[in-house]
């Protein structure tokens, strides 16, 4: 089912996107995720929750890639309905950029017994998610400098001088929300998995 949803969305996304260079740049993380999950599936299978969240994030990336993040029709309608100045689909993407990695990082840290103290683990996860978000913003900046004309579509700043900072803030909010809201269900699923031999 995971693969069916992934590939159906991927194929739809690839059919006449707004711009093929922007499309490729935006779906590249989803492609990397697919190969990483295939490679690790047998030696280090994740919880169902992690796989569902990763798929959800991949779908967000593919939709954004098809339309470009600044032009997703549903969020154009929401912006018009709420009298907003911009299409905020990219903020959903950055929220997921914190939400999903927080659970994946939590899973790895718990299963590999990296931290004995939960507070330090949570601090590390939030720091990791912020660091990952900042790193992605640097990648966006570098790609924008290299790609030239495709820069505006890839960055999706829509004239917002604080777009980078608000993107990172959304990732932090997503990470906090994931740790608070999914702890119990994640722990239940983790308890059903064998821990790898150290």
Strand and helix map with partners:
Layout lengths: L1 H13 L5 H21 L7 H20 L5 H9 L7 H23 L6 H30 L3 H5 L7 H19 L1 H9 L7
Helix pairs in contact: 1-3, 2-3, 3-5, 5-6, 5-8, 6-8
Beta content: under 5%
Number of separate helices: 9
Return the structural class: mainly alpha
- Number of spatially distinct domains: 1
Summed over residues and divided by their number, the pLDDT gives a mean of 89
Rg computed from alpha carbons, rounded to a whole number of angstroms: 18 Å
Order of helices and strands: HHHHHHHHH
Largest sheet: none
User: Terminal Cα separation, in Å?
Assistant: 32 Å
Oligomer: single chain
Q: Which ranges are low-confidence, i.e. pLDDT below 50, for 5 or more consecutive residues?
A: none
Helical content stands at over 70%
Count of individual beta strands? 0
Q: What is the overall shape? A: globular
